[in-house]
Inverse folding.
């Protein structure tokens, strides 16, 4: 068993830069895949809808955008699990341990911020909160609840995620402590 672990560690160490590149690509996809849609489409459409919340045309545009946002989140929700795979591989390849302050802080952010938010986001976009599925099932009340819940989730988590992701990139690149 120790020979297998040593061989794996050697292989990972020999390919550290390539592994880091792959990890950073997934990090970028995860971090920014929905930011353009959120800032340029959802926010303006939701603000417009809030000015006249009973206008059928505004509701239709809001719903269309939110369903497309759920669809677009698939990239983010593919990238995040791949980060959870490549991250530990990088840890092994680079010999990083929580003894490194920057690495410990990154682990704290992953466990206390990113994992809970991603689990909730995955549920809201693809499972019980999937707006398209609720609409197709004809459950309009559940659909409206899901729209509102996901919107509040985005309002609350977006500033947290923006700061945390930026800080995580800083920790991983600069390794300040």
């Amino acid at each position: 068993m120790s020979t297998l672990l040593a061989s794996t560690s050697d292989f990972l160490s020999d390919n550290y830069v390539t592994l880091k590149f792959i990890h950073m690509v997934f990090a970028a996809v995860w971090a920014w895949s929905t930011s353009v849609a959120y800032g340029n489409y959802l926010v303006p459409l939701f603000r417009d809808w809030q000015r006249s919340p009973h206008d059928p045309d505004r509701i239709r545009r809001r719903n269309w955008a939110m369903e497309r946002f759920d669809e677009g989140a698939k990239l983010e929700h593919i990238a995040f699990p791949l980060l959870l795979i490549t991250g530990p591989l990088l840890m092994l390849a680079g010999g990083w341990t929580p003894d490194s302050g920057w690495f410990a802080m990154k682990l704290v952010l992953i466990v206390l911020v990113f994992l809970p938010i991603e689990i909730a986001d995955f549920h809201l976009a693809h499972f019980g909160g999937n707006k398209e599925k609720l609409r197709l099932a004809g459950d309009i009340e559940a659909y409206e609840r899901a729209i509102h819940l996901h919107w509040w989730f985005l309002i609350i988590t977006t500033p947290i995620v923006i700061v945390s992701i930026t800080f995580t990139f800083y920790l991983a690149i600069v390794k300040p402590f």
Observations:
- The mean pLDDT is 91.
